[in-house]
Amino acid sequence: MEQKNYGLKSEPIIIGKDYVLSGFSNVPKDILQPNGQWREFLPVAENQSRGAVEPSSCVPMTVDNCAEILLKRLYGGDYDWSDRFLAKMSGNTGEGVTPQAGAQAFKNKGTVKEMDWPFSPDIDTLEKFYSEIPAEIINNALKFLESYDFLHEYVQTSPEALKEGLRYSPLGIGVPAWYLNEQELYYRPEGMPDNHFVTLIGFVDKKYWIVFDSYADSEGDPNIKHLDWNINPSVAKRFFIKKKDTFYPEKETNWLIDLLRALGYAFIGLIKKIYG
What we know:
Blueprint: H1 58-75, H2 83-89, H3 99-109, H4 126-129, H5 135-147, E1 148-154, H6 159-165, E2 171-175, E3 196-204, E4 208-212, E5 224-228, E6 236-243, H7 249-275
Antiparallel strand pairs: 1-6, 2-3, 2-6, 3-4, 4-5
Helix pairs in contact: 1-2, 1-3
């Protein structure tokens, strides 16, 4: 069976270097959704293939989706980062990248809003999609990193490990796209490798997984898909994002007030010594 690749490349996971949800991890374990369900925090759905342009950008789109979901859960509001920007910064040229490359690009290069580097209707060729990004846009993306910490790690892919990972964040997982069985669940044909990366947002225990996809089908909520419980993804990643302490101006203000108060007390003590 011939299989198209939608942008997922695989590579060996180096435990400790790439981290795994285990004792090796240095990624904080902040339980945000104890039930592992993230659907109420979804961003606006965007399709990766538009018109004649197929950028094979499922990995950066999934990384962006996970970051947007986490930010909405933590701080409210809606977020829409430029998938086109992250695709370029992750080293993609139209053949896909690894989850590690996509996540590291977000961690090291930052992000910009969709409106700043959009996948607009005039982007009608692959060359235009992957055109060089102006220095101003690249520098603006780094400002995101001044306000936020972003971390990521691989997750083991057993059902129990995926359920555990979903307590901390939505997960990026590999899937074989897309084969539907008689139960209306997407499944893995025998021997079929993963060729696509999607956002895992929940589950119905021992029945199916719920994913948010960068391709729409024609039924119901078109970017939501249900996966066979035994689909066994080859790869999974979780994410962590948080505002830096320096992002909170009240902490700076409190520090300054404490310093001025201490100086005031010292001055009063000096006056007392001089004038008795």
